[in-house]
Design a protein that fits this description.
The protein is α/β, with parallel strands linked by helices. 50% of the residues lie in helices and 16% in strands. 22% of the residues are buried.
């Protein structure tokens, strides 16, 4: 009898796994390059696709990409990290950071400034002179026209206000309008970024890579694993946030009771004293 029950449970578990996989496959079929998680897989370690992107956006066909990383993490001096969607280096040691943003808020000017500065702070090795800093490009590809001037690309560089001359510090910020559509290379590229079906895409290199993750058995399996990992990560982050909120609520309760010092509350709950001080101030 027990063996029969185990067999039934195994069958139910198998059905659930199959159902989950079908849901994941349907989800993957609907992905576009404007979905940053999918884009990360398409461009991961892929020099050809990254070169195509740069040739079109930079309007240059002489750029040779040496290496490319996706979801590349960099930390600042205070330990805060930023995850770059795509980080590439070309044969002239120029650095390129691509950020795919569906939300206008995610492509704010302060975000561009921060990414540019943190790249500078992390690419200069010990003993190197600041004059050796390479040119850097932070390139936002946005689903909407965030600059709202109906242009395909917006180039942002520092200039001397009084003369209008370029400051020439080697930093560049570009915004690419994902809604742009025409028969130019950039118009076709932005169409491909919004395209679900690889058969409808203009650029074969991108279409082949997208097709691999949507139709090839090995590619689909890799994408399913990636989506599951992202779901697990989101659940863990949500759990951690919930635990942190609970700690803050408990700190407020202990402060109201007045039986423990702020230092003792910090030690008991495992939160820093500065946070406890802020809670105390908010409670008056």
């Amino acid at each position: 009898m027990r063996g029969k029950e185990n067999s039934i449970h195994a069958g139910i578990s198998e059905d659930r796994r199959e159902s989950r996989r079908e849901l994941l496959v349907r989800k993957i079929k609907g992905f576009r390059l404007l979905d940053d998680d999918f884009m990360s897989r398409v461009f991961e370690d892929n020099i050809e696709c990254t070169e195509l992107l740069l040739h079109i956006i930079m309007n240059r066909d002489d750029i040779k990409v040496q290496e490319v990383h996706t979801q590349y993490s960099i930390k600042n001096l205070h330990g805060r990290s930023v995850r770059l969607d795509i980080f590439a280096t070309d044969s002239s040691d120029r650095k390129y950071n691509f950020e795919i943003q569906r939300s206008d808020k995610g492509a704010g000017v302060k975000r561009a400034r921060y990414n540019s500065s943190i790249i500078d702070a992390n690419i200069l090795d010990a003993g190197m002179d600041v004059e050796e800093l390479p040119e850097t490009y932070v390139i936002f590809i946005t689903e909407n026209d965030v600059m709202r001037d109906n242009r395909a690309i917006y180039h942002v560089s520092r200039v001397v206000a009084e003369t209008g001359q370029s400051f020439g510090d080697g930093t560049h910020i570009l915004y690419v309008n994902g809604r742009w559509r025409d028969d130019t290379p950039i118009g076709k590229l932005m169409y491909d970024f919004s395209c679900i079906n690889p058969d409808d895409m203009h650029y074969a290199k991108l279409a082949d890579r997208v097709r691999y993750f949507k139709e090839d058995e090995e590619g689909v399996a890799a994408m399913c694993r990636a989506v599951e990992e992202l779901c697990d990560e989101a659940r863990n982050e949500g759990h951690a946030e919930g635990k942190n909120e609970e700690k803050l609520e408990n700190a407020a309760k202990l402060l109201r009771q007045g039986k423990l010092t702020r230092e003792e509350i910090s030690e008991v709950l495992g939160i820093d004293t500065e946070t406890v001080d802020k809670i105390a101030e908010s409670l008056g």
